[in-house]
Amino acid sequence: MSNMAENESELVQTVAKMRKWQKEYFKTRDKEALKNSKYWEKRVDHLLEKPNTLFS
């Protein structure tokens, strides 16, 4: 698999996890769900900030 495809796959998987925890938080308002949601959101932000690694 190419580096670009791997990066896209990682991004898609990370966004899916983020959305899962966001939905769980808004459904339950559980503090652990909020903590996990924030963690995955930071991971997504980190992946999007990587210079020249996504979609290049």
How do the strands and helices of this protein lay out in sequence?
Elements: H1 3-28, H2 31-49
Describe the structure.
By secondary structure, the protein is an all-alpha fold. Helices cover 80% and strands 0% of the residues. The protein has helices spanning 3-28, 31-49. Helix 1 (3-28) runs antiparallel to helix 2 (31-49). The relative contact order is 0.20. The mean pLDDT is 90.
- Estimated radius of gyration: 13 Å
Number of helical regions: 2
Calculate the mean pLDDT score and round it: 90
The SSE string, one letter per element, is HH
Helix content: over 70%
The shape is elongated
Structural class: mainly alpha
In terms of per-residue confidence, which ranges show pLDDT below 50 for 5 or more consecutive residues?
A: none
Report the β-strand fraction as a percent range. Answer: under 5%
N- to C-terminal separation? 15 Å
Give the beta-strand count. 0
Major β-sheet, in short? none
Based on the model shown, name its key terms:
single chain, 56 residues, mainly alpha, elongated
